[in-house]
Amino acid sequence: MTDPAVAWARLGAVLAAVVALDQIAKAVAVSALARGESVNVFLGLDLTHVRNTGVAFGALSGAGVLVPILIGVALAALLAYFARHAGIAWMWLPVGWILGGALGNLADRAREGTVVDFIDPIAWPAFNLADVFVVLGVLGLFYVSEGRDRRRERRSEASPSPS
Description:
By secondary structure, this protein is of the alpha+beta class. It has helices spanning 4-32, 66-85, 92-112, 129-158; strands at 38-42, 45-52, 115-121. The chain has a 3-stranded antiparallel sheet.
């Protein structure tokens, strides 16, 4: 178990680091590449300055204010989940990644009305560091949550049943 106050502090530190890394990477991409410009990094990976008004894969493009509202509701639910489970070891890390990534993209939306994407692999839509952290965070959240349940199951199976 982790002290919830420590978990909240760690979550805040991770969130701030993710937002900073994301915004710095986007600023570098925007300053180095004109909108629509693409530079090959190595076979199968380009850096391409594109803008996204929707969510993942451009879904909900043109939905206007609906996108930030849906993101806000999802983030509120995530914070409520964390508040109830802050004592679980390592829960702060994936939640911090998700929140930091989401807030990094929301900062773009608030500032410019679009999200800056620049990592452009072959056969996959362009994305950014915030997106990477959101995906890693979701996977990590499943791992931390499910790992706790699996460890509890193994302990109960290993303990002798009363006779």
